Amino acid sequence: MTKVNIISGFLGAGKTTLIKKLLGGAFDGEKVVLLENEYGEVGIDGGFMKDSGIQVTELNSGCICCTLVGDFSKALGELMETYHPDRILIEPSGVGKLSDIRRVVADEAEALGLELAGCATVADVSKCRVYLHNFGEFFSDQIRSAETIVLSRTQTASPDRVDRAVALLREQNPRARIVTTPWDELDAKKMLDVIEHPDFLLTVGDLFDGEEAHECHRHDHDGEHECHHHDHDGEHECCHHDHGGEHECCHHDHDGEHECCHHDHDGEHECHHGHGHGCCHHHHHGHDADEVFENIGVETPKKFTEDEVRAALDALDDEARFGAILRAKGIVPLTDGKWLHFDYVPGESDLRYGAADYTGRLCVIGVKINEPALRALFGV
Question: Which of 2, 225, 244, 279 has the fewest beta carbons under 10 Å from its own?
Fold first, then answer.
């Protein structure tokens, strides 16, 4: 039997980082193949994995959950026939539905000799509430369809922030094992042991049924619009009520987390604060990712300076100019001959030197993005 591990997680949560950690020492002596599904026409994560020493197969131009189910099944069969691996790691798109991926693996398990040996979802401790409120169906599916939830960035979070994230995740998945220990304190084998030996196993019948676990409702009484913000350590929460045209806004602040929660019975409601905190609300019951999220994928030989890339990523927080940018990543050549690998999630960027690629590549994902402005920002 070939073991299968699925490492899921919303955009920018840290899936690739966790997989690289596991590859660093959890699979000694095993032949491992990584199957990635990236959202967009230009795949980036395969380039990030060049130094891993394993076979990487990428599926681009869609999400496993909506447009690539047939390709995904075919890819599994081809991987087994070509490589005969001991283990397949599956890294779904950040906006993919984990329940759909698990169903495909279950459907192919007997014919291909596969064993689902552990399924984990990575969740950013600082963005759980934001993403649940803004993208409930997509985020909830990943949380509710895993036996293990691995919190990322807990090393920089306050104990209160971690407690609140755990409580929120428990509401979605009461049985899941939740990893709160900073990753640097766990070696690769320990992390794999946690993922492969959960306290329970989900069956196909247990999987998320597509209904939103968290739905915000806009209270509409004669059109008045009221928004309450409260301050408790930096969390930003925006709850809107409509009663008659008047707009009043108050902020909830807890520890730096920015959250915009809109109560909307009529469908889609949007709030642009101009801070780039992703305060765009879309209620997506039964939607495919392609109906909600947009992406720009670019291949370019342009040479950048590190300062240019850093300035561009810092500018992405400007929601009024660029739309609600949820994720950006790329591998680009620098004028000094080095290659720069970069990642962006709202409020946080990571730049590092890495291996060269066949050309420069970058990808931006968000909601209602301004493509001309983004192309001008990067000069592509």
Answer: 244
> Can you give the pLDDT at residue 288?
64
Q: In this structure, what CATH number is given to the domain that contains residue 313?
A: 3.30.1220.10
pLDDT tens digits, 42-85: 444 444 444 545 555 544 433 333 334 457 788 888 888 888 88
Fill in the DSSP letter of residue 254. B
At 73, the amino acid letter reads S
pLDDT score at 151: 98
Helix (H, G, I), strand (E, B) or coil at 174: coil
| Whether residue 81 is found in the same domain as residue 171 | yes
Shared-domain flag, residues 99 and 166: yes
Beta strands in 210-318 (DSSP E): 219-220, 224-228, 230-231, 239-243, 247-249, 252-253, 261-262, 269-270, 280-281, 294-300
Residue type, 364: V
Residue 154 burial by CB count (10 A; 0-12/13-18/19+): exposed, middle or buried? buried
User: Is 58 part of a structural domain of the chain?
Assistant: yes
Full residue range of the structural domain in which residue 226 is found: 219-281
Write phi, then psi, for 271 (nearest 5 degrees): -135, 120
Query: 114 with 38, same domain?
Result: yes
Residue for token pair 């020492």: 25
When divided into structural domains, the chain yields a total of: 3
* Phi/psi at 330 (5° precision): -175, 170
Taking alpha carbons only, the member of 50, 134, 94, 93 closest to residue 355 is 50
Q: Please check whether residue 208 lies inside any domain of the structure.
A: no
Domain boundary among 257, 281, 305: 281
* pLDDT tens-digit readout, 142-187: 999 999 999 999 999 999 999 999 999 999 999 999 999 999 999 9
Tell the residue number behind the tokens 């104990």, with chain if given: 159
- The end-to-end CA distance of the chain, in Å, is 46
Chain position carrying tokens 């995904």:
72
Q: Single out the residue of 162, 146, 139, 270 nearest to residue 214, CA to CA.
A: 139
pLDDT of residue 38: 59
